[in-house]
Amino acid sequence: MFLGIDIGTGSSKAVLADDVGRVLDSATVTHDVDYPRPGWAEFDAEGGAWAEVVRLCRELLSRNDAGAVAGMCVSAMGPSLVVTDGNLAPLRPAILYGIDARAVVEIRELTEEFGAEAIFRDAGKVLSSQAVGPKIRWLRNREPEVFARARNWHSLNSFILAKLTGELVLDHHTASQCDPLYDLRANRWHPERYDAVAGHLPKPRLVWPAEVGGRIHRQAAEATGLPEGLPVCAGTVDAWAEAFSAGVRQPGDLMLMYGSTMFFVQVLGEFRAEPKLWTTAGVDPGSLTLAAGMSTSGSLTTWLQRLFGDVPFEQLVTEAAAVQPGSDGLLLLPYFAGERTPVFDPDARGLITGLSLRHTRGHLFRAAYEGIGFGIRQILEYLENAGEPIRRVAAVGGGTKARLWTEIVSNITGREQLVPEQTIGASYGDALLAAIGTGAVPAGTDWARTVATVKPDPATAPLYEKLYATYELLYPSNREHMHVLAALQEPAVE
């Protein structure tokens, strides 16, 4: 058996799978992320992430033979920043990925220090809140006593690896989101920039996500119930582990992840970069990916459900399905929490236009699905304009269970979507990484099996083409007004 564990934004999940990808058992623990100040997002690495890994291992091994586990791998939300003392005790809560935007000043500082063009050339992306480097500099500037006590730094998945094995290892993909410390073209740490940002903190050893990073030591075996000496693969950021689980591994493959936010990962055939997208190392050795993300998707439909008095979700989907395509002239811009790709504007705001007295909650719910669909189309066009055609789209995530949503997206984008059999997500990809990394299966093994194909309805194309033209005008036409209104709301994340 192979154990995969993922520490996500809303829960941690574990799965046991055999060497042909059959799921033998699984377990889940839910949790919350902390938002201690506007623009901050944190998580307890010890009492949260590590404690949940121990709990999940104990639960699964209470029902399964620990001796049959041949390897494991852990992914996590990221890239995140965990700093520890010499005993691997975290010195503060983990600073999370792009949703934590505290290092605004440090982003500007490092961009000026190393040059925007040089960073973009070597990192494949513009320095942003997604990068770890500015957060290390923030710690050095704002919490110097913590930085001085720190002996190592980790992302969440590599922190768990260290707790299990004692090894200081980071996977190449996560490292490629630690701008400006990593040279993406050379797949190595950038020596001058690393020293200028991380100072006395040692460089983690770089490995690819499926490579064995270490073996479980005695203390970890006693805590988890796993066998001492069990090989542990490096793992990676959860979205990339999920893409791997869906078979997104060849140039032109794209993962479309339907979750609280919408996330895109496309495999590249060669190095390409576009300022409004993120170029990163991939999961397979030497591979590259292009990524993008929207700030709201499932979170928007959840908000509408609450707004309507917690009407059962299935009922809202039924009402939306009864509405004609185009929502009878209702159009929604889904920037309710600002937006990442393609505008990168934290002060952007949601917009519903075309409202009339004849519109119902079914119209609004369908308009939300369609608005997200238009945003997806816009990003897919950016991805293709970066230079490589998208040949295959794998749809993953909880949102794929709402067939109406995937149908609307296919109709708006004109693209076919493949839905895999297993929707467990990143933890399933972790189990496959463990099977590959331990040599139990060949490196090219793919467990993804398509169970549904969502095809576009050409009859809807003319209407959606007309609405899309209007959708593209909504943000530029209203940007200044949005910023005025955003200033009257809670302090915006920059």
UniProtKB/TrEMBL annotation:
Key word Kinase present: yes
Every Carbohydrate kinase FGGY N-terminal domain range: 1-244
Molecular function GO labels: kinase activity; phosphotransferase activity, alcohol group as acceptor
Signal peptide: none
Coiled coil ranges: none
UniProt GO BP: D-xylose metabolic process
UniProt xrefs under InterPro entries: ATPase_NBD, Carb_kinase_FGGY, Carb_kinase_FGGY_CS, FGGY_C, FGGY_Carb_Kinase, FGGY_N
Protein keywords: Carbohydrate metabolism, Kinase, Transferase, Xylose metabolism
Gene3D superfamilies noted in UniProt: 3.30.420.40
Family that this chain belongs to: Belongs to the FGGY kinase family.
PANTHER family per record: SUGAR KINASE, XYLULOSE KINASE
The name this protein goes by in its record: Xylulokinase
Native source organism of the sequence: Crystallibacter crystallopoietes
